[in-house]
Amino acid sequence: MGAPSSPFDAHAGGPATFGVRLGPTTCTLASPGRAPGEAATVAVACASPLGAWEDAAVVLAGERDVEVRVLTDWTFHEVFVARGRVAMTVAATSDGDELPADMAFAVFGDARARVEAYAVADIAASEAEVREAPRFLP
User: Fold this and answer.
1) Least packed by Cβ within 10 Å: which of 8, 11, 71, 121?
2) HSE value, Cβ hemisphere, 13 Å, CA-based, for 123
């Protein structure tokens, strides 16, 4: 899965809570609001059946959106907030568990969302492919 993004108008002034849900994992962002031209701190909290993680992201004075990017596979989600100023690795499943193939992605709360998903090719290489690859040794 690729790069969903969840922007909201950071200049709106009032408090806002929004987030993304990917299967059983939820990441919530909460902003206390801010006056125009001021920076703001957004609380970031992600929770899955395997644990919870918290951090805070700074939204700069000139930014109107908070971007959330989630890169995921069967075992974990990499969550990037505010252009990577906050990054979290969130455990998605325990060893041997599999996420459902039709796992849903959702955006919730006070957000205008643009969601983009990209398929990622299989990164596994066979033993034969590795052995046949050219070697560049000094």
Assistant:
1) 121
2) 3
